Structure formats: structure tokens, C-alpha cells
Give the backbone structure.
Amino acid sequence: MDYDVIIVGSGAGGGSVALQLAKAGKRVLIIERGRLFTDPEIGQNEKSMLIERIAHDDRQIEINGRNARLFVSGIVGGGTSIYGAALLRPSPDDFHPGKHYSKHLPDYLCDWPIDYETLRPYYDQAEDLYHVAGNHQAAPPHIASREIPYSQLPPNLEPINQRLSQSLIDQGIQPFHLPLGIDWNICLRCPTCPGYGCPNESRASSWKCCIRPAIEKHGAEIWTETEALQLQLGENGQVQSLQVLRSQTREKVEITAKLYILSAGAVSSPHLLQRSGIKDRSDELGRNYMYHAGALAVGFFKRPTSAAERFIKQLGWTDDYFGTPSFEHKLGYFQALPIPGPLSIKSEAPFPVPLSAAKFLHARSMAFAGAVEDLPRRDNRVSVARDGQMRLTHRFHSYDIFRARFILKRLQKFLKKAGAVIVAGATAEKDDLHTAHQVGTCRFGNDPEKSVLDPNCRLHGVENLYVIDGSFMPTSLGVGPALTIIANSLRVSDHIIKEVL
Ligand SMILES: Cc1cc2nc3c(=O)[nH]c(=O)nc-3n(C[C@H](O)[C@H](O)[C@H](O)COP(=O)(O)OP(=O)(O)OC[C@H]3O[C@@H](n4cnc5c(N)ncnc54)[C@H](O)[C@@H]3O)c2cc1C
Ligand code: SF4
């Protein structure tokens, strides 16, 4: 065998398992389709990052019947190289979706095969690995929180966030400092953070926290600009090799390992399995694609909010996680965040806006976003198109849209009460470009008739094949998925080290 382990994908899931296995002395090779993206000027350029989306996957695929680019990150570090780094724990109830959605889910989806207590120590480890800054004493309502101090405290709120925080408190909400994977000792407090490249690696990414140490300290290897094409199965039903394409030379190479781990994200991992002719008994492979419904409300204030000058993504709140007294439906977390820049305002506005006006508005803007835990639907799926490329089909459940519309109104009300003079916004129901939070397409479970992976994320029936990324989640949680993907990757790494390799 060329390696002990080959890991496809260097994002949130792939990075943590690569580091753990390399630390344990295993010969690890990471295959990554994207390149290492380090140019600080391009990384901070709105046109390149948010309009041309040069850090995103460059493939044209079929999305809901039309050709479009898939806006998931396609560089070393995956989503963690451009994400917002809000690393929250979910509610323990999120592991028992039947408590809130029993009318909408079959019995076998009412409980995850593991509960929060199983993952709890791995959340601690994940927060340490991604040097999350937070205040463990200010436990947010409904979601789980850390019981021991974080490695850093968050910095003081910017004046705009002090005002917003007070306004939310006046409206009966308990806002808290978002736990962020940012090293505040060196952070430059740029207004251009989520969606952009970090100029000095203050933001915790899989490259910084996992892949680079795995290579430099523990002898792992990475092949960048290399696409995993196909797994070859032997007659014994086990994976025998992986075929990859090295983009620079157009050379196809066959590599072998004792163990194969797919961490290519919830869109690419099932596609790679399907393209390799691997079938699951449950017929759930590639299905149940979720990426959070929800809403984004934008407020424009009379005075500058400092959105154009400072880092303002600081506040979160979870009071409405399980709904409100007048709307008893599970929702998710809310956060304040910046509009990425004036060009984004220009491109999203329903009418032509001159750049000068977009700059004026951007400087006075603040957005509130809310997540809705979207429900798994079998018809929402990744499949293989005739040319071998990916095909995505997705439509939100009517219950998701119902809840997202409620959130939009609620967020707009919060903004108005906080002094916004104009409010706008949209729900995620029209977005079929699938930008973030993809999960669900290879869900784990005890029953091979109902799930793709076993509780340790091994493909049912294929001893030497694991999927360790966002695909494993049976439901999408009410918070961003990154911390749970990292924690689960650390859990499965322990299992592999103790019981497999
Ligand atoms: C702008 C943005 C902001 C976000 N903010 C947050 C946030 O604040 N909090 C939060 O919790 N989550 C956030 N997310 C989501 C989070 O980043 C993702 O949930 C997480 O990174 C998913 O991890 P993953 O391991 O499943 O896949 P990814 O991190 O997407 O990694 C998959 C990797 O596999 C590579 N790959 C794909 N196919 C192949 C192939 N065939 N061969 C080789 N390599 C391949 C890709 O290039 C990629 O590097 C954000 C995402 C984005 C895009
Ligand atoms: S605000 Fe800090 S973490 Fe974000 S991009 Fe700037 S330096 Fe990096």
C-alpha cells in the first residue's frame, strides 16, 4: 500500500482527521481539488471573492435543471478558508429531532445514533483546536455551551453592537458574544471577514490548525490541484485504489491505501461514491441534501455603523431557537453580520444602484441572519448527470419556508426597533446556488436499510471506506455545522486509531 490512509478533501472534516491520524504515526495523504490560496490582496478583494467567487468550486453543474456554478469553497481548507468562524454548539435536542418534528419525520429519524453527551468532549477539543474565543459563563439559552473557559475571551463589543445589544435586551432578548474561531491577539478587525480570505491567518482554518501541522510536524502529504475521480472496488467489496487527476499535468494516477476517507463535502462525497458505482442498501446515498433555510434582513441606519471600517460580526442570540410563545415551531440561531461590501449591494439590489450610492448604503448597513433547521427530503439530492458531472435537485419543504418567512419578519422588526430607517431582506427559499452549510447526503444510522453510514461513519458493508464531513448529519441542526463536523471528525478519528488502524 502507498499510504495507511488517503483522505479526499481538506476542509472541516478532512483536516481534523488528517491531523489526528498523522499524529498517531499513520502515513497520511490528503487529496485536494483546490489550490492553496494565500494572496492577501486578492483574498480581501470584494470583486474577486464575492462577485467572481474565485475561491469557490469552478465547475459548472446542473442545478435544478439549469447550468450553474456550485458556490461551495474549492480551495485548500474548504469552507473553513472563507467562512465566518462562528463555532456554536447545537442544542442537545438537535440530536433528537423527533421531539420537535415528529409530524414531519419518520420514526427512524427521530433520534440520531449518538447523542450530545457522546460528542461533548469532542466539542471541547474542537474549540481548543480552532482556538475559539468566547465567554463560557454567559451560556446562551437552549443551545449547549462549554463548561470550562475558552482559550481566549472575546473582545469588547464595537459601539454599533453595544447599541444593538441594548436594543435587543430592551426587546426581551439575551444577546451574547458569538464564539468565534479568531485569534484576537493578531486579528486586524477587517470589515471584510466572512466570505473573504484572512490576510494573516488570524481566523482558524483547517489549513492553519490541522493540515499544515499535520504536514510540518507529523509527516502527512498533500496533493493540491488534484481531483479524486473514482474509487475502484475489488471483488471482495472493499476499496482497492483511488484514481485521481492531477490538474497541472492532466495525468491520471492510481493510488492505494489501507483506508479511504471521503471528506469532500456533502455535495462531492456522495457524487464520488455514485460515480464509482458504489450503491447502498438504503437508497439514501446522495439524498436528503440540506443547507439551512432561513432569512437575511438588512437594515440601513441614518449614521455609519462602521460596517465599512471595522469587524462587526460579534452578536448572536438563541432565545427563539424553539420558537416564540406565539409561534411554536423550532427555528435556530440568529446573528448580526456585515453585508460583504458595496458591490454585493449593487449586485443584489432589485434596481440599478450607482457605486457611490452603494458605498453610502454599505457604510450605514447591518444585517441580521436567522437559520431554520431545514428538514430532510428524499427528493433533494445529488446525482450523476449523463456526462458524469454532478446534478443537484433541491426544493425546500413548505414547513421550512413557513418558518423562514416568520424569521424574516421577526428580524426586520428587531432592526426597525434598533433604529434602522430602511429594512429589506429575503428568505433562502429562492437561493438555489447552495452556498454554505451543506449536510445530510450520506446520513449515519444503525440500520443499513435506512442509512448510508454506520454510527462510526463507515459505509455500511465496506470495511475500508469512511465519509467524514458534513454528509453524515441526519438533520441539519439549528446552528452552523462546522463545529459539529470538526467534533465528529475527532470522535471518528479516535475510533479509527483505537479500533481500525
Ligand atoms: C462563506 C461561508 C461562511 C460560512 N460560515 C460558517 C460559520 O460561521 N459557521 C459554521 O458553522 N459554518 C460556516 N460555514 C460552513 C462551513 O464552512 C462548512 O459547513 C464546512 O466547511 C463543511 O465542512 P466539510 O468538511 O463538509 O466540507 P468542506 O469544508 O467544503 O471541504 C471539502 C473539501 O473537499 C474538496 N473536494 C471536493 N471534491 C473533491 C474531489 N473530487 N477531489 C478532491 N477534493 C475535493 C473541496 O475543494 C474542499 O476543500 C460557512 C461556509 C461558507 C462558504
Ligand atoms: S477580521 Fe481578523 S479574522 Fe477576519 S479576515 Fe480580518 S484578520 Fe482575519
